[in-house]
Each structure stands twice: as structure tokens, then as C-alpha cells.
Design a protein that fits this description.
It comes from Daucus carota subsp. sativus. This is DUF2062 domain-containing protein. Residues 31-161 form the DUF2062 domain. By secondary structure, the chain is mainly alpha-helical. It has one domain (8-163). It is built from seven helices and no strands. It has helices spanning 4-29, 34-48, 55-67, 73-82, 84-102, 111-119, 124-163. α2 runs antiparallel to α7 (124-163). The radius of gyration is 25 Å and the shape is elongated. The relative contact order is 0.13.
């Protein structure tokens, strides 16, 4: 019997595996350092939840350009991609948090306000609500970054150890006196 739910589930699982798991495994197999991966993932998530859609991609690109080799660009971009649903779900909490921080008026989220924004007839209140959402994100940024870093560090230590092509503690050969040969030059 055909079950559309199981098809949907397997399709979503295949999509997730292809778009998230496979790139992550590829990153891990290339042998990056856990702390660099953790910094990059925390940065990607923190910038990825910026409350204006489309802007996180540019912020991540800017961060990669500024930090250079201190961050791992594919990890920043992958974590930014993974954070997109979180970004969309945090717009309203950032807005409300920004209103609390400034003590500003509560902006009513109605379909009429959305229509005005889409038509380009945004009022002063709409621009003020965007400012509140940005302020809420800005104040929450250190908390998001630190929490992400603390969460990701043990994960990346385990994953790098599991997927790294180089053993984490290679045994260095010890040299005995018979192995050391001195070369004497004739004068």
C-alpha cells in the first residue's frame, strides 16, 4: 500500500542527508581543527539568524573575508544554511526583545502591516519595528555565539576524531642508540 507520509519522510531525509550530512562529513574528512570548526559553526549560526532575510549570506561572506584563515568558510556557510529555519522563527522574538530593550511600543503584527511593506508603503512604525528586531538580534548575538560555541565544541571534537583521516595521537617512533648513526667526514 502506498503511503504518502513515508514518501515525504524519506524525501526529506534524503534531502537533509544530501544537503547537510554529506557536506559535513566531507568537511570532517578533510582534517580541520575542532576549534576552528566550532568557531566557524558558531559564527555561521549567529550571523545566520540575522532577522532580515537574505542578509545573513552577505554577513557570512564578509566575516569569511575579514577572518580569512582563522575560520573555515565551508563550515560558516553550511551552518548559515542550517540556521535558516531558526532565522525565520526568531524574527518575532527579536522584535519583541528589541521592544523590551528600548521600552518602545508593541508593534501589532497584522496582515495589513505586511501588505503595506510589500507594496512599499511602510510607515514609521514598520521601520521602527525593523530597528527593534535588529537591536534584539544585536543584544542577543553574544549569547547566541557563546551558547553555540559551547554546544558545538564537544560535538566537533568527537566528530573530527571519528572522521579524521589522520590518527589523533600518532605514535612517534623512539630512536635507540643503534638507530643513530654518525657520519664522520674525512678531513
Amino acid at each position: 500500500m502506498w503511503n504518502p507520509i513515508s514518501k515525504l519522510g524519506s524525501g526529506a531525509a534524503n534531502w537533509f542527508h544530501k544537503r547537510v550530512v554529506d557536506p559535513l562529513v566531507l568537511i570532517l574528512k578533510r582534517g580541520a581543527e575542532p576549534k576552528q570548526l566550532t568557531l566557524s559553526a558558531a559564527l555561521g549560526v549567529t550571523l545566520g539568524v540575522f532577522p532580515i532575510c537574505g542578509v545573513p549570506l552577505f554577513l557570512c561572506g564578509l566575516a569569511i573575508a575579514v577572518l580569512g584563515s582563522r575560520c573555515h568558510a565551508p563550515t560558516v556557510m553550511l551552518s548559515n544554511f542550517v540556521a535558516t529555519p531558526l532565522e525565520l522563527s526568531l524574527v518575532i522574538p527579536f522584535l519583541r526583545f528589541g521592544e523590551v530593550v528600548t521600552g518602545g511600543p508593541h508593534f501589532p503584527l497584522t496582515s495589513d502591516a505586511l501588505k503595506k511593506v510589500l507594496k512599499g508603503q511602510a510607515s514609521q512604525e514598520v521601520f521602527q519595528s525593523i530597528f527593534h528586531a535588529l537591536l534584539g538580534w544585536l543584544v542577543a548575538t553574544p549569547i547566541i555565539f557563546v551558547a553555540s560555541y559551547v554546544l558545538f565544541l564537544p560535538c566537533f571534537k568527537i566528530l573530527v576524531h571519528k572522521f579524521s583521516p589522520i590518527p589523533s595521537s600518532p605514535k612517534t617512533p623512539t630512536l635507540s642508540l643503534t638507530d643513530i648513526k654518525l657520519k664522520v667526514r674525512d678531513v
